[in-house]
Design a protein that fits this description.
5-stranded mixed sheet, globular, Nucleotidyltransferase, domain 5, 3 helices, single chain
Length: 124
């Protein structure tokens, strides 16, 4: 495994995060609070996953706007830093995600839309 793909999608109910090692191996799936409590929360999360797994993380933030008008502070705070040796981060328009299914698996949700984004787009 040479890199890990992550999808991050802030929404009205919370921020969904999924990490995959290849097209079918989900290693992390989480539903976090809507807004991080610290400006370095997202970069620190990406760095921690990279260090834990020992590979570079390629992450996609699926947010509504690129001009800072997103209702999530996650968007504004994330793009001060696009990454480095441990991770890369890119913006994907939220419209690129298909409408999520309403299946709830283990209280966290399905994440099919983010999983599909990571496998089809390959997060470039």
């Amino acid at each position: 495994m040479s890199k890990l793909s992550m999808g991050i999608s802030p929404g009205p109910q919370g921020t969904r995060v999924i990490a995959m090692a290849g097209p079918s191996d989900t290693i992390l799936k989480a539903r976090l609070s809507r807004h991080p409590c610290h400006p370095r929360a997202l970069p620190t999360l990406l760095e921690a996953i990279a260090l834990w797994q020992g590979v570079q993380v390629h992450a996609a933030l699926c947010a509504a706007d690129r001009d800072g008008a997103s209702d999530s502070s996650l968007y504004r705070e994330a793009f001060v830093d696009f990454g480095g040796l441990l991770y890369t981060l890119e913006w994907i328009p939220a419209g690129a995600l298909a409408r999520p299914r309403r299946r709830d698996l283990g209280g966290v949700g399905d994440f099919a839309d983010l999983r599909r984004l990571l496998t089809e787009e390959g997060t470039r």
